[in-house]
Design brief:
This protein is an alpha/beta fold and about 375 residues long. About 35% of the residues lie in helices and about 15% in strands.
Length: about 375
C-alpha cells in the first residue's frame, strides 16, 4: 500500500537534486557559510518576488516576527493584536519583545482574522496588529489596514504560510509595514533546515532589523544596541534560490490540487475553508472541517494516508498563555473550529491517483474508532 504523506519533501528533492547538490558544493568550496553572495542574491530575488524593495534573511520565522516588532519599536508594556488560531511562533515573537499578545476571533468561513473585531480590541497600549495569512490565504487586508492607519498601528504580516499569495493583486508581505516569512522545510518555499526572512519597502526598518539580527552591529565589533544572532546561512540561501525559481509553478500545482479536492468534496460532509473572492491563495495546507475528526483520520490512516491538525489547541487555551487570563468561550469560532479541522495531504507532487485515493477514503463509510 502506497504511503501518501502530508508533505512530500523527498519527492521534491529528487526533482531538483542535481542543482541543489551543485549549489551546496559551491558554498562549501567558497566557505561562505554565514552571509556571502548567496545570501545577498537570495535577499534581492525574494524582495523582487514579493514586489517590495528590501529583504533581510534571518534564522527562522519566529525570529522574523520578533525582529520585525523590535525594529518597529515594539517592546515592554505594549500590546499587539493577533489571532489565537495560529502556530505559537506568532505569539512568541510578540512576547519575546516584552509586549503582550491580545487575541481576537476568526471568521467562520475563511478561518482567518475577523477584521470587524479589530477596532474593539484596541487600547491605549496597542501598538501593532499581526494578521496571519494562514493556510496560504491572505487576510482581508483593506479593512485591517484601514483600522490600523486610523489608530496609527504598525502592521506586521505573518506570511509564514503564504509565499506568493495575493490580496487584490498584492503579494502577501507587501501590504503592511513589514512581512515575515518562515522557510521551514515544509513551507511552500522551504529550506533544508530553519530559515526565515523579513520584507519591507522601508529601508530604515530593514536596516535596523539587520543590525539587531547581527548582534546590534552594522560594522564589525561596533554595537549600536544589544542585538541577537539571527542570520540566514549561505547553504540555506543557495537552496532557497533554486526553489524560488519554481515557486510559482509549484503554487499553481497546489491550486490545481485544491480545486480537485474542493470539487470532489462538494457533496460530502467535509467542508473546506472558504476562499475570499479578492484572495489568490497558494494552499500551503488544505483544511477541511468535520464533525467526526477521529473517524476521518482513522479511515485515512488505515489506507496509509497522513493527515494533520493545524491547530488542535488555540493559543489562548495553551498552558503557556494561562497568565493572560483569557477564559474558555472568549473566542467561540476559534474554539469550535479547533475541534473540527483536519489537514489533508497537500504538496505540488501529488499525483492524480494520490488525490483520488484521498478523496475516496475521506468520503467512504465511517469506521468504528
Amino acid at each position: 500500500m502506497k504511503h501518501i504523506p502530508l508533505v512530500g519533501l523527498f519527492v521534491q528533492y529528487q526533482q531538483i537534486k542535481p542543482e541543489v547538490d551543485l549549489a551546496i558544493k559551491k558554498v562549501i568550496n567558497t566557505s561562505a557559510f554565514v552571509g556571502g553572495d548567496e545570501v545577498r542574491a537570495f535577499e534581492e530575488e525574494f524582495a523582487s518576488y514579493c514586489e517590495v524593495d528590501h529583504c533581510v534573511g534571518v534564522a527562522n520565522g519566529t525570529d522574523a516576527i520578533y525582529l520585525a516588532l523590535r525594529a518597529l519599536g515594539i517592546g515592554q508594556g505594549d500590546e499587539v493584536i493577533t489571532v489565537s488560531h495560529t502556530f505559537i511562533a506568532t505569539a512568541e515573537g510578540i512576547t519575546l519583545t516584552g509586549a503582550t499578545p491580545v487575541f481576537i476571533d476568526i471568521k467562520e468561513d475563511t478561518l482567518l482574522m475577523d477584521p470587524s473585531l479589530l477596532e474593539a480590541a484596541i487600547t491605549p497600549r496597542t501598538k501593532a496588529v499581526i494578521p496571519v495569512h494562514l493556510y496560504g490565504q491572505t487576510c482581508e487586508m483593506d479593512e485591517i489596514l484601514r483600522v490600523a492607519r486610523k489608530h496609527k498601528l504598525k502592521v506586521v504580516e505573518d506570511a509564514a504560510q503564504a509565499h506568493g499569495a495575493r490580496w487584490k493583486g498584492k503579494r502577501a508581505g507587501s501590504m503592511g509595514d513589514v512581512g515575515c516569512f518562515s522557510f521551514y522545510p515544509g513551507k511552500n518555499l522551504g529550506a533544508f533546515g530553519d530559515a526565515g526572512g523579513v520584507v519591507s519597502n522601508d529601508k530604515a526598518i530593514t536596516d535596523r532589523l539587520r543590525m539587531i539580527a547581527n548582534h546590534g552591529s552594522m560594522t564589525k565589533y561596533s554595537h549600536e544596541v544589544e542585538g541577537v544572532n539571527s542570520r540566514l546561512d549561505g547553504l540555506q540561501a543557495a537552496i532557497l534560490r533554486i526553489k524560488l525559481r519554481r515557486l510559482d509553478e509549484w503554487n499553481a500545482q497546489r491550486r490545481k490540487h485544491a480545486s480537485y479536492y474542493t470539487e470532489q468534496l462538494s457533496n460530502s460532509p467535509l467542508t473546506p475553508a472558504s476562499v475570499h473572492s479578492d484572495a489568490e491563495p497558494v494552499w500551503h495546507l488544505f483544511v477541511v472541517r468535520t464533525n467526526d475528526r477521529r473517524g476521518l483520520q482513522a479511515r485515512l490512516s488505515e489506507e496509509n494516508i497522513a493527515t494533520g491538525i493545524h491547530y488542535p489547541t488555540p493559543l489562548h487555551l495553551q498552558p503557556a498563555y494561562e497568565y493572560l487570563g483569557v477564559q474558555p468561550g472568549t473566542l467561540p469560532v476559534t474554539e469550535r473550529i479547533a475541534e473540527e479541522i483536519v489537514s489533508l495531504p497537500m504538496y505540488p507532487e501529488l499525483t492524480t491517483a494520490d488525490l483520488e485515493a484521498v478523496v475516496k477514503t475521506a468520503t467512504s463509510t465511517p469506521i468504528e474508532v
